[in-house]
Design goal:
Elements: E1 91-96, H1 102-115, E2 123-127, H2 133-139, H3 143-152, E3 157-160, E4 170-176, H4 182-195, E5 196-204, H5 206-216
Length: 217
């Protein structure tokens, strides 16, 4: 179904690991997990009461008192196994932008993600047109060096749509529909949906994005 364009604000239902923001500010520390509850106080006069002593045997009686009839055997019923949870569908957020401004919108989205506490290694950025300057710079040293940065998994990674299928899944994927062929967008958007673990942010023309995602989802 068509997506409603949103303001460029990042809202996530589940936050990832906290990390230092892009501006150098330190994200707030998570709240401590509460420990186990203390044992409930016993009811007055109930638990802890001593059992009454068994009745004294009659003089001359041999052995212990005759046990009463055994109660019915109780068989423990195993708890039903919980049904397997279905794979979570990532939240999709659309940030309207023209092709020439889609990359800037994607950069702003990344900054907001980092400021909100996302770790840089949580984010993958895919471009459909001109590659991101970082990707172009790293590729100037060769593909081996470029993909070594991806395998290090310690920073935001930028990939062109043509090679994004080699990128591993990350909690957040940002797609900049910044031009390129129609095939690039048709390929990149469904691929990004499979790579996004929690959130997919798409920056570009809403009509084009809805037509592609509507057919691919």
């Amino acid at each position: 179904m068509p997506l409603i364009p949103e303001e460029p604000q990042i809202h996530e239902s589940a936050q990832g690991p906290r990390a230092a923001s892009a501006s150098g500010r330190t994200a707030p520390s998570p709240r401590p997990v509460p420990g186990p509850r203390p044992a409930a106080p016993p009811r007055p006069g109930r638990p802890g009461a001593l059992r009454p002593s068994p009745p004294a045997q009659r003089p001359g009686a041999v052995g212990s008192a005759k046990p009463g009839p055994a109660g019915p055997a109780v068989t423990a019923t195993p708890a039903a196994s919980a049904p397997a949870s279905a794979p979570a569908t990532p939240q999709i957020q659309l940030i309207p932008a023209p092709a020439e401004g889609a990359l800037d919108a994607a950069e702003e989205a990344v900054d907001l993600l980092l400021e909100s506490g996302r770790a840089p290694s949580d984010v993958l950025v895919i471009t459909t047109g001109e590659p991101h300057p970082w990707a172009a710079h790293e590729l100037s040293f060769g593909e081996a060096s470029y993909w070594a940065q991806h395998d290090a998994d310690d920073d935001v990674f930028y990939a062109d749509a043509a090679v994004a299928d080699r990128a591993a899944s990350r909690p957040v994927v940002v797609v900049a529909v910044n031009g390129g062929s129609d095939t690039a967008a048709v390929t990149a958007l469904p691929l990004a949906l499979t790579r996004a673990g929690a959130l997919l942010i798409v920056c570009g023309d809403p009509q084009q994005i809805n037509s592609v995602l509507g057919a691919g989802v």
